[in-house]
Structure formats: C-alpha cells, structure tokens
Write a structure and sequence with these properties.
Blueprint: H1 11-35, H2 43-54, H3 57-73, H4 82-109, H5 135-152, H6 157-171, H7 181-202, H8 211-228, H9 241-260, H10 266-273, H11 275-281, H12 283-292, H13 301-325, H14 329-333, H15 335-349
Helix pairs in contact: 1-2, 1-3, 1-9, 1-10, 1-12, 1-13, 3-7, 3-9, 4-5, 5-7, 6-7, 8-9, 12-13
Length: about 350
C-alpha cells in the first residue's frame, strides 16, 4: 500500500490497488450487515459477497505490498536500500501507533455499536496484539522487517519460499492458546504472499508465473471458490484450501491487470493512489452509515450496501484532499520522512 518516491508510479499496480481496496470496503460492509443482522432478506447475498472477498483480498494486498517493496527498495542485483527501507518502515510504524490510538478511542466511545468491543489494556498491547482492522498494518510491519533481513543477508530465495510455504501451512493450525497466537498465525501466513509479490517483481520469468501455471492456479482456485462459498466457514479459514484459493485468485488477478491492462478507468487508478488513506479511515464513516441507513425506509439491503461503501469512500477522499490542501498530508501518512525532510530544509536555509 505504499509507493516509491524515487521511481515512477506503476499504473497497473495503481489500478489493481483501486480494485483491491473496493473489495476491502464492500467486504467490510457486507460483514457488518451480516454480524448485526441488518436486512436479513439479503443475508444470502451478503454471505456470498463476504466469502468471495475474504477468500483472497488481503493476500492480494500483501502480494502487492511485496511487489512494491521489491520495486522500491531492492536493486536489480538484489541489494537492499537500507536507509530508505528503514525510513519507510518507521513511517508505517508511526502511522500504526497513531491509528491505534484513534481506533482505541473510537471503540471506547462507541462500544455498544462496534463489531468487536475494546479492552482497557488493548492500547498497551498493540506491539503484540493489534486493534481491529489494524491487524494488516501490524502484520505488514513484521513481514516487511523479516523480508528486509532475508534480502540483506542474501538468503537463497528457493529456501525462503520453502520456509514461507511451510509457515503458511502451519498458520492454519495456530490456535488461541496464548493471547497473541493470532498475530503469529497471520505473520506465518502473509509472509508467503509478500514473498510471492517480491518474486513477481524480481523474477517475473519464474516458472510459477508462466501463463499456463497462472491460469491453472486461477482455474483451480475458482472451482474451489464455488465449493467453499456453500460452506459455513469462511474460505480463508478452511485448512489447506485457503492457501490454494488465495494464491490462485491473487496471482491470477495480478496477472490479468499486468498483462492486459484491464480497467483503464481513471477512478480505479485514483482509488489505488489513495488506497492507504481509504484503508486507514474508511471504517469510521462505515460504522456511522451502518447505524443511520437502516433507520431510513428508502433503503433496501442492496442500496444500503452500495450507499454505505460509496459514501464512506467519498468522505475519505474529502478528508484526504483536505489534508493535502492544509499541507499536512505527508506529515500524517509519512511522519518520519516528512519531519526529516523539514529538518534538512531548515538546516540548508540556515
């Protein structure tokens, strides 16, 4: 979900991120409507949408993150740009800390209407146990650091991929024996998808990414998806199947956007360019609209879902534009790099 300031933007990645963030928002709306039993006559539709989205949307995002990490911070001869990678990691860590405080306060204030209530000590434990939707950013920080170490030490990629696959399979069996077991499971699982994204950028000619292999994986994943949407469990919670499903769909969709320049729509590209803002902020208007819309007779289950998702995105766009107009966007989303640049400019002007 991040970009490189030293290289140009990758248009197909922007479009792909725009597509992926739409899945995230619509998936979250469907999940909330199911959990709170809103518009029960649409529960089957919500369930199918929810299961389809959750079968691959976050593995796809982690794959994109791995691709951009490789593009932005690893040279063609596999050397890591340590200073820039470290600066970006600190940016993400500071954003994680700030958004954790906001999420904590929000959940305390609206404890009766949020999906998962907050515990008083949650803020003190965010290094081990993230708050709500911030699990992705928390997992990304750990996976980012692990992969940076692997690249720095020039560990053989075949060995690392084998380790990643084993850890991903183990993650399906990591239970809740201790309070941050879920965090360990998430790191084990998403390291694989981050590594796949890394290899997609550095080794696009790898046999795993040949057209026949990609479409075979994609076809198998689609068949599995048709099977799993009829199960009671989420597709990403079914042992072993989740790996095949998430990998096949993610790689297939990634390949389609890259090879055929799908979805040239400027809207998708724009949403991809601000997807980090949407990810961080969309949950808050989404919760408010989830409370308000069912009180209005005009809306049915479908129009309420569309209105909630679209209105939440529009509000985030307004906030994003406002932060840019005030000149504090970089400070909010890249605080370390922004403050460092300001410090350098002050020293040069002295």
């Amino acid at each position: 979900m991040y970009e490189n300031a030293y290289k140009g933007r990758i248009e197909f990645v922007d479009r792909l991120k725009g597509f992926a963030i739409l899945l995230v928002v619509f998936g979250h709306v469907a999940e909330r409507y199911l959990e709170f039993d809103l518009y029960p006559e649409y529960s089957v539709f919500y369930s199918i949408l929810y299961k389809v989205v959750y079968s691959f949307h976050m593995p796809l995002f982690m794959m994109i993150s791995g691709y951009l990490f490789s593009y932005s911070y690893v040279s063609s001869d596999f050397f890591l740009s340590e200073k820039r990678a470290k600066a970006h990691w600190i940016d993400l860590a500071l954003v994680y800390l700030g958004m954790s405080v906001i999420a904590y306060v929000f959940k305390l204030m609206f404890s009766k209407v949020v999906l998962v209530s907050i515990e008083p000590l949650s803020l003190a434990l965010i290094a081990l146990k993230p708050i709500g939707y911030l699990w992705y950013l928390h997992t990304l920080l750990i996976v980012y650091a692990v992969t940076a170490y692997v690249v720095k030490k020039h560990i053989n990629y075949r060995l690392w991929m084998a380790i990643s696959i084993v850890l991903c399979l183990i993650s399906t069996f990591v239970g809740g024996q201790f309070f941050f077991a879920r965090t360990i499971g998430l790191v084990f699982r998403y390291e694989l998808f981050f590594s796949v994204g890394y290899l997609l950028e550095k080794m696009p000619d790898c046999f795993l990414f040949r057209k026949k292999m990609v479409f075979t994986s994609f076809g198998v994943a689609l068949m599995l998806l048709l099977f799993t949407v009829n199960q009671s469990s989420r597709p990403d919670q079914i042992h072993f199947i989740q790996l095949i499903l998430a990998y096949g769909l993610s790689v297939g969709i990634f390949f389609c956007f890259k090879q055929w320049e799908l979805c040239e729509a400027a809207l998708l590209k724009y949403l991809g360019m601000i997807c980090f803002s949407i990810y961080l902020l969309h949950q808050y208007p989404l919760t408010v609209f989830r409370i308000i819309l069912p009180q209005i007779d005009f809306f049915n289950g479908l129009t309420a879902l569309l209105t909630n998702a679209i209105a939440s995105i529009i509000l985030v766009i307004i906030v994003d534009c406002l932060l840019k107009a005030l000149g504090i966007h970089e400070l909010c989303f890249k605080p370390y790099s922004s403050l460092k640049s300001m410090h350098i400019m002050r020293r040069q002007n002295q």
